[in-house]
């Protein structure tokens, strides 16, 4: 649940007719440090909450203090310890979804993580299939070839090639000197990406927002920042930054989620948010 109070409602798609509840989704992001994993997960968690969802938030990124997802949401975390102990904690949390049928948003952090430990020691994909749980994996990258090392390494081990994964390029990491279409072309022809796409992966662009760092530094919700709430100890945010964040959270990010598709995302009872009009 988001810690800050919501300021204004996000537009919603019409609620679909009642259908059989889809399988629980564990949504997580794999990638190098400082590619924007926690920020994207935070925005997703806030949106899911705005749309009536109640996902569990799991945080095994214990080294990230300043921008931790735990600063924004009531997150469950393992006790401090090595990755093997964290792996056992993660196993227990995953198994608990069999009974609760909740969705989960998992922030694993960068480097060698509890999830990597679990992948390396267990047949994770098969276990989740047996439990009736969908693992929705995003590989978040910038423009550097090394950003795809995690994907390439996991494929080489032949232990982890999740179906219908998403390869997301963070637009905010692309230097102005590079053409976005050229970056997408290079990424799409990387051997690891081509192999992932054969297994159902798609490539998406995660939209940039200039004041993103200001919001994260203040540990505020996106809607609260856009509404002009201020944080003690920080300079007053400018009206232009607030408008830019309002446009991003109500137009650009919902459009991005629409492209990702509901099947990859935690359940939103009100439906995926509808992107606001372009003149916001």
In short:
It is built from ten helices and six strands; from the N terminus they run E-H-E-H-E-H-H-E-H-E-H-H-E-H-H-H. It has 280 residues and is an alpha/beta fold.
Describe this structure in words.
The protein has a domain at 25-209: Rossmann fold (3-Layer(aba) Sandwich), CATH 3.40.50.300. The chain has 280 residues and is α/β, with parallel strands linked by helices. Residues 4-10 and 15-19 have low confidence and may be disordered. The longest helix is centred in the C-terminal third of the chain and has 22 residues, at 239-260. It has helices spanning 37-50, 83-100, 114-121, 124-131, 149-156, 180-188, 191-198, 212-218, 222-226, 239-260, and strands at 25-30, 56-59, 104-107, 134-141, 166-170, 202-206. It is built from ten helices and six strands. Helix 2 (83-100) crosses helix 3. Strand 2, helix 2 and strand 3 (104-107) form a beta-alpha-beta unit. The protein has a six-stranded parallel β-sheet with strand order 2-3-1-4-5-6, with helices on both faces. Residues 1-21 are annotated as: Disordered. InterPro entries: P-loop_NTPase (IPR027417). Residues 8-18 have a biased composition (Low complexity).
Topology:
Layout: E1 25-30, H1 37-50, E2 56-59, H2 83-100, E3 104-107, H3 114-121, H4 124-131, E4 134-141, H5 149-156, E5 166-170, H6 180-188, H7 191-198, E6 202-206, H8 212-218, H9 222-226, H10 239-260
For the record, give the distance between the C-alpha atoms at the N and C termini, rounded to a whole number: 27 Å
Low-pLDDT residue spans: 4-10, 15-19
Trace the largest sheet across and list its strands: 2-3-1-4-5-6
Strand content: 5-15%
In N-to-C order, the SSE pattern is EHEHEHHEHEHHEHHH
Under CATH, the topology of the domain at 25-209 can be stated as Rossmann fold
Rg over C-alpha atoms, rounded to the nearest angstrom = 18 Å
Mean pLDDT: 86
Oligomer: single chain
Number of helices: 10
Number of strands: 6
What share of residues is helical? 25-40%
């Amino acid at each position: 649940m988001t810690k800050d109070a919501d300021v204004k409602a996000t537009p919603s798609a019409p609620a679909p007719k009642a259908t059989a509840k889809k399988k629980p989704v564990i949504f997580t992001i794999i990638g190098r440090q400082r590619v924007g994993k926690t920020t994207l997960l935070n925005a997703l968690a806030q949106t899911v909450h705005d749309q009536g969802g109640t996902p569990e938030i799991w945080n095994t990124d214990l080294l990230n203090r300043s921008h931790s997802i735990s600063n924004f949401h009531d997150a469950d975390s393992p006790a401090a310890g090595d990755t093997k102990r964290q792996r056992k904690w993660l196993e227990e949390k995953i198994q608990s979804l069999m009974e609760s049928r909740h969705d989960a948003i998992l922030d694993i952090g960068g480097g060698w993580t509890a999830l990597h430990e679990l992948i390396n020691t267990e047949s994770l994909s098969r276990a989740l299939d047996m439990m009736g749980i969908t693992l929705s994996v995003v590989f978040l990258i910038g423009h550097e070839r090394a950003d795809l090392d995690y994907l390439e390494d996991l494929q080489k081990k032949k232990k982890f090639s999740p179906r219908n994964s998403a390869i997301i390029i963070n637009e905010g990491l692309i230097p102005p000197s590079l053409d976005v279409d050229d970056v997408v072309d290079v990424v799409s022809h990387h051997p690891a990406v081509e192999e992932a796409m054969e297994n159902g992966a798609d490539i998406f662009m995660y939209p940039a927002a200039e004041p993103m760092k200001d919001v994260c530094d203040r540990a505020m919700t996106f809607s609260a920042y856009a509404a002009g709430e201020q944080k003690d100890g920080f300079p007053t945010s400018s009206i232009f930054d607030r408008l830019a964040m309002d446009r991003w959270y109500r137009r650009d990010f919902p459009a991005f989620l629409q492209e990702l598709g509901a099947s990859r995302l935690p359940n939103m009872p009100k439906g995926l948010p509808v992107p606001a009009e372009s003149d916001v």
